[in-house]
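Propose amino acids for all 140 sites.
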């Protein structure tokens, strides 16, 4: 899908910020070794941005950027308190569950938007096949 360079830059910027936030949450300070990297936290945190990146060429730029801003906002609301304000070793599991649920909701929302955009593009370009008259067989 054709988008302006500014919108495309902002979409990639959302993905980059999400990846940095996921890495910051996965790198936990340890009193003897410096930092410990929790791979489960990293991979579950990157999952919504992977789903978001899949839909870059399927959804119009403005819609995708709006969904990306909401994704980043939800991610910040979940991860900042969980990692930086009330860190307890991720005992309650919210850092794992929230990104997975977010990715599932994101797949549904972006799938609906992609279907809407592709349908609109087909109608606009007159690529919708004509309907057959009621008396014709479907095998013709």
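Proposal:
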């Amino acid at each position: 899908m054709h988008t302006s360079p500014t919108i495309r830059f902002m979409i990639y910027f959302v993905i980059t910020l999400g990846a940095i936030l996921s890495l910051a949450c996965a790198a936990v300070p340890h009193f003897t070794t410096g930092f410990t990297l929790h791979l489960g936290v990293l991979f579950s945190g990157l999952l919504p941005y992977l789903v978001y990146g899949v839909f870059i060429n399927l959804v119009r730029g403005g819609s995708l950027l709006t969904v990306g801003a909401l994704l980043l906002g939800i991610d910040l609301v979940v991860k900042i308190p969980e990692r930086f304000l009330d860190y307890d070793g991720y005992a309650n599991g919210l850092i794992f569950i929230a990104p997975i649920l977010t990715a599932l909701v994101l797949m549904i929302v972006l799938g609906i938007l992609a279907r809407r955009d592709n349908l609109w593009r087909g109608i606009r370009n007159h690529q919708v096949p004509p309907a057959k008259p009621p008396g014709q067989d479907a095998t013709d």
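The mean pLDDT is 82. Helices lie at 5-26, 39-54, 61-85, 94-124.
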